[in-house]
Design a protein that fits this description.
The chain is of the alpha/beta class and about 260 residues long. It has one domain: Aldehyde Dehydrogenase, Chain A, domain 1, CATH 3.40.605. Helix content is about 45%, strand content about 15%. The protein contains eight helices and ten strands. The strands form four sheets. Strands 9-8-7-10 form a four-stranded parallel β-sheet, sandwiched between helices. A two-stranded antiparallel sheet has the order 1-2. Strand 1 (about 25) and strand 2 form a beta hairpin. The protein starts with about 20 loop residues before the first strand and ends with a helix. This is Aldehyde dehydrogenase domain-containing protein. One of its GO terms (molecular function) is succinate-semialdehyde dehydrogenase (NAD+) activity. Keywords: Oxidoreductase.
Amino acid sequence: MAAALKKSIPYQFKDPSLFETRSYVGGKWISGQAGKTFPVFDPEDDQEICQVADLDRSDVQKAIGAAQEAFVTYSKMPHRERRWLMRRWADLIKENREDIAALYTLELGKPWTESLGSVQYAIDFVDWFEGAVERTLGDTIPAARGNNRVLTILQPQGVVAAITPWNSPVAMVTRKVGAAIATGNTVVCKPAPETPLCATALAKLFERAGGPPGVFNVVTCSPESTPAVGEELCHNKLVKHLSFTGSTAVGRYLNRVCEDYQAD
């Protein structure tokens, strides 16, 4: 069921179910263990758009656990099936580009035509990573001795944490998530609290594309919950990679947190 808008907008969603305020964890749409929410505002007039699930550290631990569980089987999925999954996801984003652009404009305040362009930019990433599936098979390299052969094998690493910025809520999701799932990894994505609605819409389309539960998880949280959630994504030993786009100050902070984890 579509979430309730708290303000009127000059757009009728073709698929209202893409307006989703819950988080996506382990193939299920959840409101978080504590049931807390936080407001998302339209920057054009500062009116509240809706209330979104405010997940805490324990919820994120469950998301990471779901991603790790999914990795066991997803990492063994044949390349061809992974490519088909990426293709279906890209096609669904294309089919729903106007609704996603509407969400983009609603929560970011970007002009409609520019939002459409940004959604196309995001689609291009999924298209590119679909092709990359077949480019990550490894190499055969001539050895120093003629009777030897050197093989390189590229293997998925595990759970990837993706932290995306408020000012690119679609393309930075597909760029980070697309790269990870195309290469057999699983993802826990934390969108910025200012612009979480595009990420949940993308997760819904991934689910419709047949994405296995736990492969792509979206954890939404308020600015107040963000430090604890971010630290869990850095500290949890099941997380093998962190991809972050944002301010220099936060990037340096996350780098220190990750260094502390590596030293443990």
